[in-house]
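Exercise 7. Predict the joint structure of the components listed below.
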Amino acid sequence: MAEFSIIDTYFNRPSYSSVDLGVGDDSALLTPPPQQQLVICADTLVAGRHFPIDTDPHAIGWKSVAVNLSDIAAMGAKPQSILLALSLPQIDHHWLKGFSQGLYDCCDQFGVSLIGGDTTQSPHLTLSVTALGWVDIGKAVPRSGAQAGDLICVSGTVGDAAFGLKYPDHALKKRLDYPTPRCELGQALKGLAHSMIDVSDGLAQDLGHILKASHVGADLHLDQLPLSPALQALPNQQKWQLALAGGDDYELCFTIPSPALDELKARHCDTPITVIGVVKETQQLDFYHHQQPQELELQGYQHFAKTTN
Amino acid sequence: MAEFSIIDTYFNRPSYSSVDLGVGDDSALLTPPPQQQLVICADTLVAGRHFPIDTDPHAIGWKSVAVNLSDIAAMGAKPQSILLALSLPQIDHHWLKGFSQGLYDCCDQFGVSLIGGDTTQSPHLTLSVTALGWVDIGKAVPRSGAQAGDLICVSGTVGDAAFGLKYPDHALKKRLDYPTPRCELGQALKGLAHSMIDVSDGLAQDLGHILKASHVGADLHLDQLPLSPALQALPNQQKWQLALAGGDDYELCFTIPSPALDELKARHCDTPITVIGVVKETQQLDFYHHQQPQELELQGYQHFAKTTN
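Solution:
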């Protein structure tokens, strides 16, 4: 089966109306909405590295879209469309059916169209998705805008995906396989949050990216971390390891001035939000547990202080 | 070396001025030029399949950009920026230096910025590039606009890349490793050509995509094919095999009414153009040699008639 047939069979559904020309030409065509900036990102999933090779193909399809929509959400933007670059060892119709279904399920949930891409043969299963979205001009939320005094917030719960990776029979495994991009919250934060990032590499590391880009530091309160019951039941060092250094949560971490947080609540966004710390001028990340300074030994965590010189 | 360091070291040059936010945040930001449609595509290169694994990394970098700019050109659009999804078996600084230099050399030649992407570890070297461009609203040239009576044209010479693959010591190998995206010609054809495609899979197959999408057929004159001297010297069947079924030329094939071709010549585009045939209503692709019908046995060529039913 040639590339063209794979695309026709599995990846050629009609686009939503905002797409002028989708799959099937040299390129796709989109008319920009008025007064909007284009937001665009690309993320790759490699079999055996980002997911076990025997992962349900439906989950792989879902996740390949979700992790990219999460990057769009982290800018405060509304996602519109994706391109898929799919490199496959062989043509496995069972796999392709499940994968394409998972991909479209995630697209449909967030009103996103698949508008193009490329299918190639490769010795190793690799998926690169490019996602596009739009945001009001000047309203995108960068990593670099955090200011001393901002509250540090995170959506949902953290550490669930890492727990699911460690205990694959637990219900939290679903959080690893089917992450929820926080698209509604991301858009609600546009013009309100000073800085934002999605939590893909672990909360401590990703918050570190905000602090580095913004030339600030933070006090983080370990006792305020939003944790699922399964994580709450663990010893402190274990729960902190998962919550701070576990990746793949795809929650949003953002900094916001206190009055803007009240404004956000008035916007009736349903996503749970927890205040976990505060931004400070001193360029270091300090941890506290019930107001007491806490030294942490996190595996797989690149210390913020060491990377900033 | 972590992903962040690879990006900082090799892929963090300043963008051209049209980019609002480039490498280093969750997503990149672009402000659309007024009255333009966004044109976007993605193409993947897999080591061992799209290039020999020991190809000069500089050539790999160049080609990974060039093949995508070619897709933008084939819409009649002006390329603006790219995203790179790079999956690498190991961190090889010699390779990364050459690759990034080749990538930026192609970007610089066509005024294109690298604005984002993703670097991951993978057992197999795989590169996916997404390219973005802009075109006046309604002026993009699709595959589907060919009309009976249109002249069929192709830029440059065809079959060179396939010749270079077969005879890697010949100077034409450069055409395989360093394809030239026909960006100037593509833009000159906007609003003039009825249909266009870039020749990546072989002229016969790619012209077939135009004919299928446009519900028309064509007469193609083998004696009019633009060939380099090395190909002209070959027996007919060999030269036709390379020119019609050899891929990787990245020339533009387009159909255009005769008066518009005169108009194109008045636009002083320097790229050589050759008329090789004419579009007809009957939905089949027929070959002629000095006015005589010619049966062809092309290896690796999916017959147009068989794929259209």
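Discussion. The first strand of chain A starts at residue 19 and ends at 21.
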